[in-house]
Amino acid sequence: MTGNDDIRIAAVAPGPGDRLRAAILDGAASLFPGYFALVMATGVVSIACHFMGLRPIALALIVVNWIAWPALWALTIVRAVRFPDRLLRDISDHQRAPGFFTIVAGTCVLGTQNVVVIKAIAIGTVLWWLGLILWFVIMYTFFTAVTVRARKPSLARGINGAWLIAAVSTQAVVVLRGVIDVASPPPDVVQFQVIAMFLIGCMLYLAIIPLIFYRLTFVPMHREDFSPPYWINMGAVAITALAGSILILRGDTWPLLGPILPFLRGFTFFFWAVASWWIPFLFGLVLWRYVWMRDRFTYEPAIWGMVFPLAMYTTSTYQFDRAMGYGFLDPVPRVLVFVALAAWGLGMIGLIRRILRPLRGQPAPRSIA
User: Fold this and answer.
1) Distance between CA 264 and CA 255 in Å, rounded?
2) What domains appear along the chain, each with residue ranges and CATH number?
3) Predicted pLDDT at 11
4) What does each C-alpha distance from 327 to 255, 304, 330, 332 come to in angstroms?
5) Which range among 22-26, 168-172, 177-181, 183-187 shows the weakest confidence by mean pLDDT?
6) Closest CA relative to residue 357, chosen from 279, 276, 298, 292
7) Exposure of 364 by Cβ count < 10 A (0-12 exposed, 13-18 middle, 19+ buried)?
8) Pairwise CA distance, residues 301 & 158, whole Å
9) pLDDT digit string (tens) for 13-56?
10) Considering only Cβ atoms within 10 Å of each terminal Cβ, which end of the chain, N or C, has fewer?
11) Average model confidence (pLDDT) for the chain?
12) Which 3 state secondary structure label does DSSP give 256?
């Protein structure tokens, strides 16, 4: 090889900047719509750590989320500008479209994290209004798109736990407003809207979960079908119990809540009990897939849909115990917070390895999504 050959190769070899640009474009093109579940999981783990006295971890996870949230928004905007056809295709896809609800939930969970951990009420208020606007846009775009779609998949191919993120996003709006207005009530119209959204979130869960339960019990499934989004079966009902608990705790200061407090207590207990029922069943499915069937565990973006419910149940149980005045459920969140932390750590290791592969010039996986 001559010196000129060396110069020619150096001239065409991609540098770090080229690899970074290519990685960003590839990430935007193939971005999984539900990747904001990373923000959801990180935020709820942070909140759980705050309540359990692990404040340094809670603060560190705020920093992580303020890196992840804008980065995901940047990738989403690049995707909308450079790859609008892929974005539009995802919106009407029964499997991928529910992931867009994580944008709403992630935004509101980030706001709740900032309000609870560092008392940033102003930031939380801005994120609440943004989350509320996104909720209206995504909620009605999604249900309209999948309703008017000419060719629809079968129930077995079209439904999964990700559909319940519609309920999660709705209750995330409720929870954020509930932690913003603690000392004094919001205007009556806001109280009315928050209560109505809590009930809408309940309706969405109760409408969707029978379809998912039917698929689990009556439709043949392969081990690959038992993917992390099925943990949202529990996460959606856990955040509903959390939203109910927050509203119960505001019963003394929000006038519109007074007449319906008995109903809220019973309904919240119902949803917390359902969330608790799901946990052994879901852990059993995990053991069946990865231990009995010896399936290989690999990182996938949907893993955050498993981390989020674990952390959400931890926080939900803590607030449910306070709202109902029991006091004997305290050991549950104190143990589960470490399970949620471990799951978050494994997920983050997988994500970092996935991001670094194309930057090192290694063959990229099918997508970072």
Assistant:
1) 14
2) 17-359 (1.50.10.150)
3) 47
4) 26, 30, 6, 11
5) 22-26
6) 298
7) middle
8) 19
9) 555 566 667 767 777 777 888 999 999 999 999 999 999 999 99
10) N
11) 89
12) helix
Give pLDDT tens digits for 90-140: 888 888 899 999 999 999 999 999 999 999 999 999 999 999 999 999 999
Sign, CA dihedral 217-222-223-228, equals negative
- Long-range interactions of 140-149: CB distance < 8 A, separation 24+: 141/91, 141/100, 142/91, 142/97, 142/98, 142/100, 142/101, 142/166, 145/91, 145/92, 145/97, 146/92, 146/94, 146/97, 149/92
Taking Cα atoms as reference points, which of 166, 157, 301, 184 lies closest to residue 254? 184
The residue type of 123 is I
In Å, what is the CA distance from 245 to each residue of 75, 216, 261, 331, 334?
Answer: 35, 29, 10, 18, 18
Torsion angles phi and psi, residue 83, rounded to 5: -130, 55
Residue ranges of alpha helices (H) inside 181-303 are: 188-218, 232-249, 261-287
Rounded to whole angstroms, the Cα distance separating 82 from 65 reads 25
Phi-psi category of 368—alpha, beta or left, where left has phi over 0 and alpha has psi -120 to 50? alpha
Q: Which two tokens stand for residue 191?
A: 């109280």
Mean pLDDT of 260-286: 94
Q: Which amino acid is at 326?
A: Y
What is the token pair recorded at 351? 């994500």
The pLDDT of residue 362 is 57
Query: Look-up: residue for tokens 């419910």?
Result: 309
Q: What percent of the chain has pLDDT over 70?
A: 90
C-alpha 170/C-alpha 138 separation (Å) is 11
Tokens of 138: 């995504």
CA distance 204 to 36: 20
Report the distance separating Cα 238 and Cα 313, nearest Å.
5
- Per-residue pLDDT reduced to its tens digit, 197-228: 999 999 999 999 999 989 888 888 777 667 77
| 230 burial level (CB within 10 Å; 0-12, 13-18, 19+) | buried
pLDDT at 9: 45
